[in-house]
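Retro notes, item 3 of 5
We never archived the inputs for the 5-amino-5-deoxy-1-O-phosphono-D-mannitol complex last cycle. Fixing that now. Sequence and ligand:
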Amino acid sequence: MCGIVGYVGPRQASDVLLGGLARLEYRGYDSAGAAIMSEDELVVVRRVGKLVNLREAIAGKPVPGTVGIGHTRWATHGAPNEENAHPHVDCSGKIAVVHNGIIENYMELREELAANGHVLRSETDTETVAHLVESYYEGDLTAAVIKTVRRLTGAYALAIVHLEDPGTIVAARVDSPLIIGIGDGENIVASDIPAVLEFTREVLVLEDGDVATVTANGVSVVDAAGRPADSEMMHIEWDLAAAEKGGYEDFMLKEIHEQPRAIRETLRGRMDATGKMQLSELQMTEAQLAAVERVFIVACGTSYHAAVVAKSLIEQWARIPVEVEVSSEFRYGNPIVGEDTLVVAITQSGETTDTLAAVREARRRGAKVFAITNVVGSRVTRETDGVIYTHAGPEIGVAATKTFTAQIAALTVLALKLAQANGMLDQKRVEALWEELSHIPEIVEAILADANDIAECAAEYKDANSSLFLGRGMGVPVAMEGALKLKEISYIHAEAYAAGEMKHGPIALITSEVPVVVVATQGHTYEKVVSNIQEVRARGARVIAVATHGDQDIQRHAEHVLYIPAVSEALSAIPATVPMQLLSYHIAKLRGCNVDQPRNLAKSVTVE
Ligand code: M6R
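Structure as it came back at the time:
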């Protein structure tokens, strides 16, 4: 996720770009840059780190000019350094491009461009776009961009300028957001509405496949087929503060709603045309993957819960034994890992001290270590043998939501890859699971669209002091994550148990004052879960069940039922988690808690 701003009009472009980028910094902040038409030169300024570094560079050496494009980056391809910062330029330095998204076929494009004599200077997928536009340019920038985007697969929002057409920005999008703020004698291209609100509330929303030609006095848009597009204009009522959170009250709620996109982006391109799962980042041959005999996963907090989901999937599909340990225990234990062990470290931030220490310990013992992280260039990426990125975009709320479900998506791909490599799953089964996995974003969308009853349910339980979360099988990590979400943002004591363990102690806690949240989705232990519900209800508990649409019977056993669409048991962790997140969110809000910055917590735990 990156932020894009483009300006054409009478104002100084650098002011508008810096102001707009500041409002998009939530989308990424590892580097920033701008390209401005300054007299007869295209001036590009790029700086590593937060936007303030770019601001200082431009303040020190102003770049006059009224047309330009700017970018704040959340790295996906290549480290967050100056060479990889946007804008990227072509060989002549006359064409500049900013991009948000992932161009999946960039490797083949790079090879083709290099073979045709282009010199690429960065490691990014984006730079290919600048060179493609250069190769197609014959005096009409829009025509060159249309030819370029036809060569791209993947997701992109692009803003492109050419020194030979100095009053124009050409913008295009597929699967990444892009809007145009329509002003009076000025227009602003942006990834999101907050960037334009200072200048206009009239916004044109580009559709997938659209290519827009933007000048100070007008915007013309063609669709993917090259026909004039029927673009939608919107009048924005939000004030700026609301707009930064996309109209949501809090970042946490916004991030919960960003999950379909985060999961989609994480899964993008993970199965190739021949039906092979793609995890080339592991840099392991099929034979090496097939030879993996043990997996050890280390992580903390929410990431640990993703690890528990992964254990279940890898053991079930690839039949490889998996151990899971919290990093803080691993680092001081005497773990049995060695050259035969594949160690996976899960950390959304990539900076968690305990997990980094566990990584070092595992490597010291000879293991190959891979990271799953959301942050390109983070510490863990420099200390491991390979990295699988989740593409959730920056998570601002301290409570992990979209990064958790994106981790599960990435780990599901890993489990499928291992099972495909060692032949434990046949090709038909892999393809069927992949097909179902690809539809999980839509299932999450459906849950989010029909979530009113969760807020009503929250109102009834907001005054609880203590709660229990139960599940079996895949429901166990979901219950663990549900309990963590509730305790960290609402400060209600919440404990998670494997439902079968209740009778061995925790059932003593049950009273009518202790709500019990039960993952009761369809699966091979469903009947057992219903029995566990009966046990707690017999002791006066009020039960909130997360169940599968169509299960009417469960209503006889629970005070509240939060339904999710039917999904196979192995893939149920993501959908079952979403109602838990929303339940915790609404309870916390009703208790007046700050859900984005809960007390005593930090987003990255860089202390022991
Ligand atoms: O960045 P990491 O994934 O390594 O962070 C680990 C935990 O601190 C983190 O998952 C924490 O539990 C969540 N923010 C809780 O919502």
